[in-house]
């Protein structure tokens, strides 16, 4: 409700940008002049693009993002002399990534960003200020970037899976993807052409998380359901 009210205020007063910082002062969220609050995944893509545009003179370098981040990141990096490093989806993994002196930017999937030249951890106020600075440098509006950058669609489902079955599901996942392009960073990320599927055992709950990503929502949902059924079959010994 508060976000809805702030979106209305943005539109009625003609403001270009607004942001909020989480109570822990580590994460940020942004709203544009249309009153649209960005998801953390979309904001990551936008902030990455801003960083690329304002740091061309520092290439070559590396950026680090979680394996859960959309493939939009690789798409916008094309044409730059930059390496994308995929990491686990945790703040500790983000901090660890800064130990590599060639990593100049670390973006998270929950609204956290690390700029190692300032601090080796996520700082919400600094992130907000840095994003505003990069927008000023480039002359972009958030909405300009949102409308011009590639958009991928993700669809996620949690499949019930007893703790004692998680090892079996992981083994079957590895066997299933043995001859496929895959990424083994946090769970297993499988690539089928322009579609990717991430299968991760939940660390806190008796579930297996299946996330499919594609160029359209229908394909993402269809692939998600197909792999969710595979996980259920592997769980049940089929």
> How do the helices and strands follow one another from N- to C-terminus?
HEEHEHEHEEHHEHEEEEH
Please report which band the strand proportion falls in: under 5%, 5-15%, 15-25%, 25-35%, 35-45% or over 45%. Answer: 25-35%
Structural class assignment: alpha+beta
Largest sheet: 5 strands, antiparallel
How many discrete structural domains?
2
Kindly report how far apart the N and C termini lie.
46 Å
Provide the gyration radius in Å. Answer: 19 Å
Mean pLDDT: 95
CATH topology of the largest domain: Alpha-D-Glucose-1,6-Bisphosphate, Chain A, domain 3
Secondary structure: helix percent: 25-40%
CATH class of the largest domain: Alpha Beta
CATH superfamily of the largest domain: Alpha-D-Glucose-1,6-Bisphosphate, subunit A, domain 3
Question: How many β strands by DSSP?
Answer: 11
CATH architecture of the largest domain: 3-Layer(aba) Sandwich
Tell me the number of helical segments per DSSP (H or I, 4 or more residues long). 8
Shape: globular
The largest sheet has its strands arranged as 7-11-10-9-8
Oligomer: single chain
Stretches where pLDDT falls below 50 for ≥5 residues?
none
């Amino acid at each position: 409700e508060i976000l809805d009210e702030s979106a209305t205020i943005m539109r009625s007063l003609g403001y270009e940008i607004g942001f909020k910082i989480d109570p822990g002062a580590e994460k940020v969220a942004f709203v544009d002049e249309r009153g649209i609050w960005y998801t953390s995944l979309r904001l990551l893509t936008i902030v990455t693009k801003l960083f690329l545009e304002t740091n061309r003179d520092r290439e070559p370098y590396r950026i680090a993002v979680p394996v859960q981040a959309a493939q939009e990141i690789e798409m916008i990096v094309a044409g730059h002399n930059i390496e994308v490093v995929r990491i686990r989806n945790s703040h500790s993994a983000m901090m660890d990534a800064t130990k590599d002196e060639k990593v100049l930017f670390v973006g998270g999937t929950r609204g956290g960003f690390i700029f190692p030249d300032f601090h080796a951890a996520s700082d919400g106020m600094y992130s907000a200020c840095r994003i505003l600075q990069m927008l000023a440098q480039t002359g972009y509006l958030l909405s300009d970037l949102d409308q011009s950058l590639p958009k991928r669609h993700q669809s996620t489902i949690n499949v019930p899976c007893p703790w004692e079955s998680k090892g079996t599901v992981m083994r079957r996942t590895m066997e299933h993807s043995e001859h496929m392009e895959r990424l083994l960073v946090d769970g297993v990320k499988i690539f089928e052409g322009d579609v990717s599927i991430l299968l991760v055992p939940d660390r806190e709950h008796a579930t297996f998380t299946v996330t499919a990503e594609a160029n359209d929502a229908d394909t993402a949902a269809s692939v998600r359901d197909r792999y969710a059924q595979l996980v259920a079959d592997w769980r049940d010994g089929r």
